[in-house]
Write a structure and sequence with these properties.
Length: 60
C-alpha cells in the first residue's frame, strides 16, 4: 500500500491504516472524496505527494 505526505504539515496518509468505506474496504488515497482534507492542517488532497515509506512524520 502507498503512503502520501502532506506538503504543508508532513502528515502521512497510510492506506493500510486509512478510513474504510461502508463495505469495510480501505479507501485508497486517490479514491478519497473531494471534501476530504488533511486532518492536521486542513489542506486538500492535491497538496499531498507520494511519500517514501521510511519518512518520519505524523501518521494516520
Amino acid at each position: 500500500m502507498k503512503h502520501y505526505s502532506c506538503t504543508v504539515c508532513g502528515f502521512i496518509y497510510k492506506e493500510e491504516n486509512a478510513e474504510k468505506d461502508h463495505e469495510g474496504k480501505i479507501i485508497e488515497f486517490l479514491d478519497l472524496p473531494p471534501e476530504w482534507n488533511c486532518p492536521n492542517c486542513g489542506v486538500s488532497p492535491d497538496l499531498f505527494e507520494e511519500a517514501n515509506e521510511d519518512e518520519p512524520s505524523e501518521e494516520l
